[in-house]
What we know:
Distance between the termini: 28 Å
Shape: globular
Largest sheet: none
Helix content: over 70%
Oligomer: single chain
Number of helices: 12
Amino acid sequence: MGAVQKAKITFWEEIPSTKEEKKLILKIDWFILSFCCLAYFCNYLDRSNINNAYVSGMKVDLNMSGNQINKIATVFTCGFVHSRGLLTLGTYKVSTVNQIYAIRFFQGFFEASSFARVHYILGSWYTESELAKRSGIFTASGLAGTLFSGFLQSSIHKSMDGLSGISGWRWIFIIDFLITLPVAAYGFVCFLDTPVRTKAFYLTASEKRLATDRLPKKSKTRKGVSTIGITTILITAVYIGIWCAFIGILTSILILAYRPESLAAFFAWANLVCRDDDEELFYSANFVSHFSWGMWATIGVSIALALWTILIRWFQMRDLKRQEVSDESQDVAGS
């Protein structure tokens, strides 16, 4: 297999059989996958910004104490279990911690079904061999939002704290809203429905038929989990493992190299736990707001995750090759 062929397989996973199918997949990637990733990026950007705001002045301005930052996370989770831009914008105007409780609850409430719906839409457009890589990219976009959040906070706190009489931590939510708004508009105009019901203006009638025809038909009876489904899950896990390892290493290196003021924001909960303690497993109280040990630990764990994922993938490919050889031997013997 040549280098060009390997590159095509890496990009496409399964090379489209026709030019029409290749064009269709490119459109799906551009409009569906890009919106899902941007939305998930904004989601985790907002989730992380609440901790960044806490260590950038919100705690003092709202007279927060004890475990109130943990309660904010709790009510967000409650809203998520029991069932985003305007609520995020509204956070900049709060004057009490109780108002944040309410906003975070309803953010969680409105986001409750988003993750499951995204995977439903992805599964409605992509084949099983295509879905693994796209799911890995989608998951990694959330991690990228967490990574970007800390550096965004650092920049805003340095350059915009007190601008127009607004505290730096409040500007975080305004900027977050301004990032989210065009993403929401993009999704409203361009995001697809399922192939059967889509009315997307950028898909031709033949592309809509192709999108339906190239996917497997639904079976009236289900007999357990198919081998292809299990394989897809395993491949998805490979991409997620590699992406998680990459983001973990990149985040830690950037923090160690540049040491932004937002460093403690990555460990806001750890700050709270360690404040009155003399020792912790990784972090003693004198390491609060630095946590260099934690960064090195993250790098080590991320490298181990990548190596372990690659090793599992190697064993999987070895078993598949053995199975192919066995099948070929049986075919020869049968003929």
